[in-house]
UniProtKB/TrEMBL annotation:
Chain segments annotated as transmembrane: none
Pfam families xrefs: Arginase
Gene Ontology MF: a single term: metal ion binding
PROSITE patterns (UniProt xref): ARGINASE_2
UniProt cross-references to PANTHER family, sorted A to Z: ARGINASE/AGMATINASE (PTHR11358), HYPOTHETICAL ARGINASE FAMILY PROTEIN (EUROFUNG) (PTHR11358:SF28)
InterPro entries: Ureohydrolase, Ureohydrolase_dom_sf
This protein's name: Agmatinase
Length: 383
């Protein structure tokens, strides 16, 4: 069964017998037939320059292999768009775990970073000819803001200070403007601090809020308004954004709403906070183009902040989240809707509520979240 493998040691000490058992490769016609090409065309190894080699599995994992920058020291480095993580989940109302979301999204982005996409944008769109990573803008990954897991007030203050420090740098494309920031969450409470810093730079903002929940609940309804710390959470932050004056009047919109209201006045209160809504099933009635046109008409007069809760996508596609709801957008629908928002002035964005502990072993939630960020970068660079 094992043939020559079990030949005695003495056989191999006799050259003639060894040659009979192991003919020379040079004399083996079968070997030459199989390997002749490689003998005639020896491998050419690359030189010491590694930058052109396959980078999917190399180096420190940054978003889409972007360079790491020291973003929290104003004036150290200028850039146009910053990716930054916000590892925070102590204001969740159901399942925690989104503090590990930034790392999950970065892991999901390893195949991004180069090349045109044949499906980016509507037919005829400039997005079809765009590689946002090589479009003349400097994109960097700032790493994560240090956020305390023990005190929400301290953690959110840290995030605000981190966002403000990034905004104090200058855009390379337009030195009179601050860089734009895309934040990887983290539960969606972080959006309030992102809006605060963006408001200080651009003034009142229209918000496009992709979510299955309205997140503008009155603190008395959602948290009992027991203390200020409990009142601010991932379901009330838009109430506070309106109360603080960060939002443009009657110019913000929810997209993908499908979770039940908590009280009889929720819809009225939401309208008072300046929001209109597109429910998830509207995409079945008016189609993607109808959804896109309605969003653009509602927000286009203002600088726009885009925040996307990953639970706006159906739980079959994105199970790794804190408060999953059935009946959301498919991955294809959400990416097509995002690409349709070309030509609006998106000055900042975040992707939140990615909770990898509830994801599949295929990391599908982190991967679709990375694709959402990729689409947002396209919107920020296409103009």
């Amino acid at each position: 069964m094992y043939g020559n493998l079990l030949a005695s040691r003495e056989i191999f000490e006799t050259d003639s017998l060894y040659t009979q058992i192991n003919p020379s490769e040079e004399d083996d016609e079968e070997f030459k037939a199989r390997c002749g090409f490689y003998n005639e065309n020896p491998i050419q190894l690359p030189d010491d320059e590694l930058s052109t080699d396959l980078v999917i599995f190399s180096g420190i994992v940054s978003f889409a292999h972007l360079p790491i920058a020291r973003c929290f020291v104003p004036g150290t480095e200028d850039f146009d768009i910053a990716i930054v993580g916000a590892p925070y989940d102590t204001s969740t109302s159901f399942r925690p775990g989104a503090r590990f979301g930034p790392n999950s999204i970065r892991q999901g982005s390893r195949r991004l970073g180069r090349g045109l996409s044949p499906v980016r944008g509507f037919p005829g769109s400039k997005l079809r000819r765009l590689d946002p990573y090589h479009a003349g803008y400097k994109l960097v990954d700032c790493g994560d803001v240090p956020m305390s897991p023990f005190d929400n007030r301290v953690a959110l203050n840290q995030l605000y200070r981190g966002q403000r420090a990034i905004h104090k740098n200058k855009s390379l494309k337009n030195s009179g403007q601050p860089p734009k920031i895309v934040t990887l969450g983290g539960d969606q409470t972080i959006t309030l601090m992102n809006l605060r810093s963006a408001y200080e730079q651009w003034g009142r903002l229209a918000v496009i809020h992709f979510d299955s929940h309205i997140d503008s609940w009155d603190p008395h309804v959602l948290s009992g308004n027991i203390t200020k710390s409990t009142s601010l959470n991932h379901g009330t932050f838009l109430h506070y954004a309106h109360e603080k004056g960060y939002l443009a009047p009657n110019s913000s919109i929810h997209v993908g709403i499908r979770a039940p209201f908590l009280g009889p006045n929720d819809e009225k209160h939401d309208f008072e906070c300046g929001f209109e809504k597109i429910v998830a099933r509207d995409v079945d009635i008016v189609g993607i183009k109808g959804v896109v046109e309605h969003i653009k008409q509602h927000v286009s007069a203002w600088p726009v902040y885009l925040t996307l809760d990953i639970d706006s996508i159906d739980m079959a596609v994105a199970p790794g989240t804190g408060t999953p709801e059935p009946g959301g957008f498919s991955a294809r629908e959400i990416l097509t809707i995002l690409d349709g928002l070309e030509d609006i002035n998106i000055i900042g964005a975040d992707v939140v509520e990615v909770s990898p502990a509830y994801d599949t072993n295929g990391d599908i939630t982190g991967t679709i979240a990375a694709s959402v960020v990729d689409s947002v970068l396209g919107l920020m660079t296409v103009t």
